[in-house]
């Protein structure tokens, strides 16, 4: 199992030396966005979701809840985040309470197929489908929970042009047994086959590479008290392998917007 971390908020507080409620927005951005690109990546998705007050988005694979909280703060909408890792759901709920957003953002421990709610105005997946073997069924289940005309935004890691697989461990897989990479073109076609019409499809690999370079410089010159790699099992190695795989063409990152 790739995601085995537990008691995440207590770990953050121990590393930071203070309660999570006292951490700045910038400090939290370094730990609650479990994907390349950080909050800037989510900013690239938000316009395509077309969300506003009175609407509700579904964040599938919500992790520590950073994107869900960012979307709620930026657009004024409500967000339901779902994840199959119980410790992540617990951490996301606690971080949301500390951010005073529990009235608009909540989290449920469930796969999307079993979620009882429906009729969402938008959905997103951010670095999620790499762990999903049956991608068409996954996105079909998401479509089933959206109203007609709802938007779907994705920011996903895909198989690159290099034939050899990336070095393990990776952020989404320790041993490769739960890594199911597909090419960007194949992923786009799969999402369309699951009940969506394409609005935009973009290769953001170069942008993510620049983000990794800037992140490395920041960590080298002014390392924070707590950063995401410190919260993951073998975190620094996993992040480094991801950056190397990106630079060598073993993986790509694609961003897309679709309409149900």
From TrEMBL:
One family name in Pfam for this protein: Methyltransf_25
A GO MF label: methyltransferase activity
Key words, A-Z: Methyltransferase, Transferase
PANTHER family in alphabetical order: GERANYL DIPHOSPHATE 2-C-METHYLTRANSFERASE, ZGC:194242
Superkingdom of the organism of origin: Bacteria
Protein name per the record: Methyltransferase domain-containing protein
GO biological process: methylation
InterPro entries membership: Erg6_SMT_methyltransf, Methyltransf_25, SAM-dependent_MTases_sf
Keyword Cytoplasm belongs to the record: no
Sequence ranges assigned to domain Methyltransferase in this UniProt record: 58-149
